[in-house]
Amino acid sequence: MEGGTVVIGHRFCSPQPLQLSIKKKIYILAGYGYEVKDAYDNIVFTIEKVLGFFRSNKMLVFDAAGVPLVTIKSKKFTWHSRKQAFKGDSTDKKDLIFSAKTSSMFQFTTKLDVFLANNISEEVCDFWMKTNYMESTCDIFAGQSSTLIARMKKKYILLGRDKLIMTVNPNVDYAFIVSLIVILQEILSSTQNDSV
Fold first, then answer.
1. Phi and psi at residue 116, to the nearest 5°
2. Given Cys at both, which of 24, 128, 147, 163 links 142, Cβ 3.0 to 4.6 Å?
3. What are the residue ranges spanned by the domains of the chain?
4. Is the CB of residue 184 less than 8 Å from the CB of residue 17?
5. pLDDT tens sequence across 58-103
6. Is the pTM of this model over 0.85?
7. Which CATH class name applies to 15-99+154-194?
8. How does DSSP assign 66-133, residue by residue?
């Protein structure tokens, strides 16, 4: 896209294609989170599920220095599975960055529509995501076009500890892409749990 794709911050846009890996981390006493690393095995982001008295519906995305960048929260009482992303550790409506909702879920495909906070009408999505073949790949597109901005592939590892490999196009906000992938994983895991 001309001028790049900035949603969370300019500092998360690389002039070169970027490859990141995301791995789920299970904590014995404290639920789970995710760890995002670059091609040199440096931690770029950590994502932690916020614990509460009941089933938590909130996750925090931290940068490498431990500063909260994004809070991801489920929106209750909606027809579609909808997640909202807010600035920092806020969940205030004025700090909304974007929201994502399922537009279709079939046996082999899941599609999510993504709307930036200033897209009040939500008649046309700002981005969309589509998974293929039992969620082993996911493509992220700009607008309602076929302009691909990022791709995720699942790499199967022994003992169920799968690794997600993301390739982000130049000048695309990779903090935004990571947030979208986490949202997708949370929606997929909640639908799998609900179907059990």
1. -70, 160
2. 147
3. 15-99+154-194
4. no
5. 899 999 999 999 999 987 655 557 899 999 999 999 999 999 999 8
6. yes
7. mainly beta
8. S-EEEEEEEPSS-SS-EEEEEETT---GGGEEEEEEEEEE-SS-EEEEEEETT--S-SS-SEEEEEET
